[in-house]
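quick q for whoever's on today - can somebody do inverse folding on this one?? i tried earlier but teh output was garbage lol. tokens:
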């Protein structure tokens, strides 16, 4: 345990030429420096979740140099027993530090971790081709040809419910995952500096650092242009959760609710888009979809539904009238909810339920095959009832 670097290890090989391995963590170095300067912070595993002086944290990170790492080695070589005696050192036998592995990470702490997890899972789906030669050369800013050695691939590994994205470039790797459920962690690990035409000696650390951090940023830039699903998550939550606007409360518009689906189906009718619609016009159409007579559908219930739609931002009142019109986002939401339910969810669920009549549905055949494979697996493992 070092005063300036925190936990580290120094391991010696017991036979000639007595190679040694020094392993340290830059995040631990930063935390020790913050402790010494009296700057309050909250840890995130071995990193920093929050801090009273973020700019000072960045300055400390930038100040971790090859010279300081070499000084750490020399300091402990004077204290610990090692293979080279005083006579060996006088004869010129000394340790010099080369870079066996270097990891450069970027940890982005999220204000809303759940949205961050949704974002990352969508990022994985959209970037499964990131490890292809044509893509990975964008990340590492290195030209990849048929003669370039190494494996170029993308892997998605899941531990429990936490997925991680891995892309390989020669002997190096870039990894991305949701850290501690609070942050998006992007890290580039360089296992061979020669992959980037850089020497292994420790004084090459600044050039290696530049490559590692640039790779992290380029990966995020590529992913940013894919999409921003956090907006979609917000839009969905705004509809399906209760809402309060200027002291007025409205209940949720649940996706699977028959009355809500009927409302959306009515709202997207072209005839209602020309000059807006009234309570009476919508009530007559809605009652039919719900299997009721318009006269039996209470006016007060329709007023309640219109108020819900208005507070959720689906519709807006036309000034100086009793008519309503769909908002721009309301039209898209109504279309998406109604079409997804009517054309995707409802008919396909009817095909895959056990009570569905036999037919030529490809989806039904796939689910039936899946059930057979599960049953067979249970029998093979002697799990069958």
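ok took a stab at it. sequence:
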């Amino acid at each position: 345990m070092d005063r300036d670097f925190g936990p580290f290890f120094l391991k010696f090989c017991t036979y000639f030429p007595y190679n040694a391995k020094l392993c340290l963590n830059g995040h631990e170095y930063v935390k020790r420096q913050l402790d010494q300067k009296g700057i309050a912070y909250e840890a995130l595993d071995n990193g920093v979740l929050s801090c009273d002086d973020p700019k000072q944290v960045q300055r400390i990170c930038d100040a971790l140099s090859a010279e300081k790492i070499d000084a750490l080695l020399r300091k402990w070589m004077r204290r610990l027993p090692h293979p080279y005696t005083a006579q060996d050192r006088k004869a010129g036998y000394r340790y010099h530090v080369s870079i066996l592995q270097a990891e450069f990470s970027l940890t982005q702490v999220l204000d809303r971790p759940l949205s961050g997890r949704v974002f990352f899972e969508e990022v994985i789906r959209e970037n499964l081709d990131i490890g292809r030669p044509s893509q990975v050369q964008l990340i590492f800013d290195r030209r990849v040809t048929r003669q370039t050695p190494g494996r170029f691939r993308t892997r998605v590994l899941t531990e429990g419910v936490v997925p991680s994205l891995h892309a390989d470039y020669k002997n190096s790797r870039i990894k991305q995952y949701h850290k501690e459920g609070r942050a998006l962690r992007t890290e580039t690990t360089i296992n061979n500096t020669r992959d980037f035409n850089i020497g292994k000696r420790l004084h090459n650390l600044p050039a290696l650092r530049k490559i590692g951090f640039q790779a992290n940023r380029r990966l995020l830039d590529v992913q940013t242009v894919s999409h921003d699903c956090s907006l979609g998550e917000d839009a969905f939550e705004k509809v399906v959760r209760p809402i309060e606007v200027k002291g007025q409360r409205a209940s949720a518009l649940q996706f699977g609710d028959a009355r809500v689906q009927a409302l959306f189906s009515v709202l997207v009718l072209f005839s209602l888009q020309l000059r807006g619609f009234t309570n009476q016009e919508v009530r007559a159409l809605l009652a039919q979809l719900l299997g009721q007579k318009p006269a039996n559908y209470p006016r007060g219930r329709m007023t309640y539904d219109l108020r819900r739609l208005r507070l959720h931002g689906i519709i807006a009142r036309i000034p100086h009238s009793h008519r309503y019109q769909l908002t721009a986002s309301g039209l898209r939401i109504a279309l998406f909810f109604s079409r997804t339910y009517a054309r995707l969810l409802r008919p396909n669920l009817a095909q895959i339920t056990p009570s569905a009549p036999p037919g030529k549905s490809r989806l039904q055949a796939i689910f039936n095959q899946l059930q057979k494979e599960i049953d067979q697996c249970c029998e093979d493992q002697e799990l069958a009832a």
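fwiw The chain has a mean pLDDT of 83. also The chain has four domains: 1-96, 98-227, 232-347, 353-385. so keep that in mind when u check it
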